[in-house]
Structure formats: structure tokens, C-alpha cells
Amino acid sequence: MSSEKWGKAIFLLLSLFCSDASGAFVGINIGSHSTSLPAAEDVVAILKAHQFTHVRLFDADRRMLNALANTGIEVMVGVANEEVLGIGESPSVAATWINKNVGSYLPATNITAIAVGSEVLSTIPHVASVLVPAMSYLHRALVASNLNFQVKISSPQSMDVISRSFPPSTATFNSTWNSTIYQFLQFLKNTGSFYMLNVYPYYGYVSGDGIFPIEYALFQQLSPTKQIVDPNTVFPYTSMFDAMVDAAYYSMGALNFSGIPIIVTESGWPWLGGVNEPDATVENAETYNNNLIRRVLNNTGPPGQPSLPVSTYIYELFNEDKRRGPISEKNWGMFYTNGTAVYTLSLTSLDTGNSSSRVFCIAKHGADLKSLEAGLDWACGQGKANCLAIQVGRPCYEPDTLQNHASFAYNDYYHRTKSSGGTCDFGGTAMITSVDPSHGACVFTGSLRSDMSGISTPFSAFGPVSTESARGTTLQVPEVAVLIPVILVMFQIFSRSI
Ligand SMILES: *[C@@H]1O[C@H](CO)[C@@H](O)[C@H](O)[C@H]1NC(C)=O
Ligand SMILES: *[C@@H]1O[C@H](CO)[C@@H](O)[C@H](O)[C@H]1NC(C)=O
Ligand SMILES: *[C@@H]1O[C@H](CO)[C@@H](O)[C@H](O)[C@H]1NC(C)=O
Ligand SMILES: *[C@@H]1O[C@H](CO)[C@@H](O)[C@H](O)[C@H]1NC(C)=O
Ligand SMILES: *[C@@H]1O[C@H](CO)[C@@H](O)[C@H](O)[C@H]1NC(C)=O
Ligand SMILES: *[C@@H]1O[C@H](CO)[C@@H](O)[C@H](O)[C@H]1NC(C)=O
Ligand SMILES: *[C@@H]1O[C@H](CO)[C@@H](O)[C@H](O)[C@H]1NC(C)=O
What is the CATH number of the domain that holds 196? Predict the structure, then answer.
């Protein structure tokens, strides 16, 4: 490489590395409708034991916020639905709220986001007109305390505000909320915040009443005859989760908003239900949440926004026996209050398993070749990865592709440096996978097949919350009537290509 080329490569690397330093995270919701919640210190001990890094509280519970101090856990606090009206009508109420519930805990408790209400548009429609004013007043108070760069404000929305969510490319917001949603998006755009979305394939699947294959809801492989394809974009949707997230992106697009990232504030699956709720089982909950974690840590976006990873807060830490509604409503918790997991969570350190928590950093399929080459050069050079194994004649030289060589180098770099902050990014050309890429005599760093000890701690984070708030139980599914023709279209596409 000439020095001029080097100069370019280095510039490219620098700019790429700066653009997306952080991967997607998995956080956790902590609801508080339980008769016997452990003490806040015990809740935090459970979070730490399972290496959660992000937690969402539905309120600003004093004991939880104190217990979360100096833990490194990032906290999303909540304005309860009942508080939104008062805040939206009074800047001084907003300022008091910020001082009391945010200002007085920072920086020891790392509050990074405020969720204003919980599905408030669909649960208390008359609050719509004050939602954005409430957010603006809270933001103004943050600015006054110079906290606005540290703390983002948004408001979790249910899929109910989207009137037709399938096919995703034709999704739009329900026009009932046109002006509210427009102001809402304008606020998010102006303040560099994100769209908070609650995504419940469980409700989608159940209310679909047999229309959707359960595999589609559980992120499992769909049979070749049941692929689900958006007829306009021809994007295949391998999960309902991805389709719902994309529907929200396309709905924003229909109002000409782009570049507002989505964070999924709730997603999960109940593990126990009544006789008429046969899909609320431990097995399905285990499958859903494990696949959800894998999906999120894969660090990609949905088909329509592949470069925007979807950080997600799982719903939820503990069961909430005081919730009203069907039996399933009370049984979303992943842990008993004694800290024991209800079912195995394999991709994370949530169990003490070591093999199961192994992750690898590999080159993305289809990554730009020039960027891959630059990433490979950097990893083997400045990054000090051990690249011996990919030299001619060595075990990992074959297949002789940039994809393979970069994967080996990226992964070696990542395993050597992650404990000191190294990331799996390489200008967006790298991704985390739980699938061991070792093949034949080629053993990737961190593989169980290697003898390296002590490598590889899990990658993700989870977090808690504390009080109230309602999760809508009426999550709307992609409209069934629309889906059927789509499946038919897909059939046509497939049969034509055969
Ligand atoms: C709080 O979280 C932010 C975002 O990850 C991070 O940049 C910051 O260093 C954290 N602050 C503390 C005190 O841990
Ligand atoms: C839009 O929301 C209103 C109010 O909730 C509801 O009555 C209407 O059915 C919704 N429209 C669609 C197309 O979902
Ligand atoms: C809402 O916005 C959409 C898209 O701009 C538009 O087609 C629709 O007429 C609007 N509805 C109302 C009630 O303003
Ligand atoms: C979005 O932008 C397009 C092109 O500028 C314009 O034709 C359309 O009316 C806009 N739609 C809305 C809802 O503002
Ligand atoms: C990551 O997710 C995308 C989109 O769902 C999928 O196409 C891809 O196969 C996934 N990769 C891994 C390694 O899971
Ligand atoms: C925790 O509680 C669950 C449910 O009550 C029980 O099955 C489990 O044995 C308990 N675990 C421990 C370690 O006590
Ligand atoms: C963890 O790794 C050790 C050593 O490789 C092994 O003996 C042990 O069985 C593993 N534990 C689990 C839960 O996989």
C-alpha cells in the first residue's frame, strides 16, 4: 500500500470507528405489581449476578434508585401515566419532577433516559394533547440543569398507534394521533432521542388465532412454504418481532421522519397461563427470550433498517401477581424473587454456564470489501490480533476469502481486548454471533475447542425497574386479513423461482 493509500485507509477507519462504537444491548424491565418484591438491594444483587447493564423502572422509586448507585447499571426511569397530565400543564411541576427524580441521583445513579408514560396514547387518549408538552417541559428542565446530553426523553408506544402493521412497508400511524405523533417525532428528532416501542409477538400470535405459524412469533425457522415476505420490498421477514419494528420505522417514514432509532422498551413471553392460554408455557417463554437475546445481540436492524441495531428491554424481571387480567398477565417474570431463573437463559451469563455464554466476533456477510480489508489490516496491525493462523498453509487460511480472514482476525482481537473495552465493530463490518465459526483444523479464539481458559464472559446486560404502569394487553397484530394475501404472494414468488 502506498503511503497515500494508507492515509486514506486510516481516515476511513477512524471515521468508521467513531460512527458506531456501541452495540445493541439487552436490558430488563422491573415491574412492581407484586406482593413480595425483594428489598431494593437484593434486586440489584440479582441484576449484578446476572450482569445486567440496563434496567427500566416504571417510576422513579427512591429505594431502587439509591440501590442502583455506583453499580454502573444504566437506568431508565418512568413518569407514571397519572403524572403526565400535571407535568404537561406546568413547567414548574416538570422542573420539580426532574430535580427530585433525576437530578438528585446523578451522577452516582446513571440515569440515561426518561420514559414519559407507558403506552399513554392508547391507554389514556385524552392525555394525547399534553404528552409532547410534558416531554418538552421535562427537557427544558434538563437543559436548565445541563443534563440534556446525558438523559434522553421519549415515551413508550404500543403497536396500537399503528393502524396497519403488515406488510411493514405500508404501515402508517393511526391518523387519530396524526398531530400528536408528528409533534412527538419532531421532538425526538430535535433532541436526538429515540422512539420507544413495545413489541409483543405473543399478543400478535394469539390474536392471529392460527394465522401465523408459531415459529414466526418465536424466531424459529419457517418452513420453505411459509416464508413471509413483504410484497412491496420483497424483504423476507423471519420473525414477527422484526416485522413489528420495521412497521414502526415505515410509519415514521410515511410522515417523512428518518434517522430516529427505535429502542424496544418491552418484549417478552409469559410462561404460565389459564386453560384458554395454551401458548403461555415455560418452553415457549424460554424459546422466545433466548432467541430474542440472540436476535438483539446479533447487532443488526430489521430488513428495512439493517444498520440500526435494536436494543431491547425484556419484559420482565419478576412475575407481578397483583396485575389484573388473565393468568398469563401475571407470569412474565424470568426470575423468581429468590434470584433463581425460571428457565435457562443460554446466551448470557444469566446461568453460570460457560460454554453457552460464548460469543464470537465475525465479519458481517455482505460487508463492503474495502472496509473489510481495512478492518483486517487494522486488526492484524495496530490491533495486534494474532493473524498467524490465516497465513498461507496455516489451518485458517482456507477458505481464502476476506470474509474468513477478517472474521478470524476480528474475533482474535475481540477476545484479547474486550475485558479492557475492545469492541466488535470494525467500522460496522463486524457482528457478534453465538455460533462457533471454527471449522476443520481451524479453531477460533474463545472456541470451546481451544484450550484457552477464562476467556469469554457474556456480552450482554440486563436491568431492573420498579413500579407501576400498564402494559397494554391489546397489542395489535399485523392485520390478519392483509397477511393472507401476503403469504399467497410469497408462495407465488417461491414457486416461480423453483
Ligand atoms: C453512564 O452511562 C453512559 C452511557 O453508557 C456512559 O457514557 C457513562 O460513562 C456512564 N456514567 C457512569 C458514571 O457510569
Ligand atoms: C384508530 O384509532 C381509533 C381510536 O382508538 C380507533 O377507533 C380506530 O379503529 C383506529 N383505526 C385503525 C385503522 O386502526
Ligand atoms: C394523517 O396523516 C396522513 C399522512 O400524512 C394523511 O394521509 C391523513 O389524511 C391524516 N389524517 C388526518 C386525520 O389528519
Ligand atoms: C413527504 O415528502 C414528500 C416529498 O417531499 C411529499 O410529497 C409528501 O407530501 C410528504 N409527506 C408528508 C406527510 O409530509
Ligand atoms: C442476524 O440477524 C439477521 C436478521 O434477522 C439474520 O439474517 C442473520 O442470519 C443473523 N445472523 C446471525 C449470525 O444470527
Ligand atoms: C427459588 O424459588 C423457586 C420458586 O419458589 C423454587 O422453585 C426454587 O427452588 C428456589 N431456589 C432456591 C435456590 O431456593
Ligand atoms: C464450565 O467450564 C468448565 C471447564 O471447561 C467445565 O468443567 C464445566 O462443566 C462448565 N460448566 C458449565 C455449567 O457448562
Answer: 3.20.20.80
Instruction: Please report, for the domain that includes residue 370, its CATH number.
Output: 1.20.58
- Mutate which of 163, 164, 173, 480 for ligand 2? The one with the most ligand atoms within 8 Å of its CB, which is 163
Q: Could you say which ligand is closest to the alpha carbon of residue 126? A: 2
Supply the range of the domain harboring residue 401.
Answer: 359-455
Q: Name the band, by pLDDT with cuts 50, 70 and 90, for residue 22.
A: low
For this structure, is 119 an active site residue?
Answer: yes
Q: What confidence tens digit (pLDDT) does each residue in 24-75 have? A: 999 999 998 999 899 999 999 989 888 889 999 999 999 999 999 999 999 9
Both 367 and 446 in a single domain? yes
Task: Please say if the pLDDT value at position 484 is more than 50.
Answer: no
Structural domain contains residue 342? yes
Same domain, 406 and 304: no
The predicted model gives 290-303 an average pLDDT of: 92
- Based on the domain organization, do 450 and 324 belong to the same domain? no
Residues 392, 292 within the same domain: no
Write out the chain in H/E/C secondary structure.
CCHHHHHHHHHHHHHHHHHCCCCCCEEEEECCCCCCCCCHHHHHHHHHHCCCCEEEECCCCHHHHHHCCCCCCEEEEEECHHHHHHHHHCHHHHHHHHHHHHHCCCCCCEEEEEEECCCHHHHCHHHHHHHHHHHHHHHHHHHHCCCCCCCEEECCECHHHECCCCCHHHCCECHHHHHHHHHHHHHHHHHCCCEEEECCHHHHHHHHCCCCCHHHHCCCCCCHHHCEECCCCCCEECCHHHHHHHHHHHHHHHCCCCCCCEEEEEECCCCCCCCCCCCCCHHHHHHHHHHHHHHHHCCCCCCCCCCCCCCEEECCCECCCCCCCCHHHHCCCCECCCCCECCCCCCCCCCCCCHHHCCEEEECCCCCHHHHHHHHHHHHCCCCCCCHHHCCCCCCCCCCCHHHHHHHHHHHHHHHHHHHCCCCCCCCCEEEECCCCCECCECCCCCCCCCCCCCCCCCCCCCCCCCCCCCCCCCCCCCHHHHHHHHHHHHHHHHHHC
The active-site residue out of 74, 119, 286, 329 is 119
Selecting among 83, 266, 286, 329, the annotated active-site residue is 266
Does ligand 4 come within 6 angstroms of the Cβ of 255? yes
Q: Which ligand is nearest to the CA of 175?
A: 3
The residue ranking higher by pLDDT, 18 or 147, is 147
Residue 267's pLDDT band (cuts 50, 70, 90): very high
Residue 356 Cα: closest atom of ligand 7: 14
444 and 305 share one domain: no
Protein residue closest via CA to atom 7 of ligand 2: 176
Which residues does ligand 2 sit against, CB inside 6 Å?
A: 163, 174, 176
Please tell me the total count of domains within the chain.
2
pTM greater than 0.90 (yes/no): no
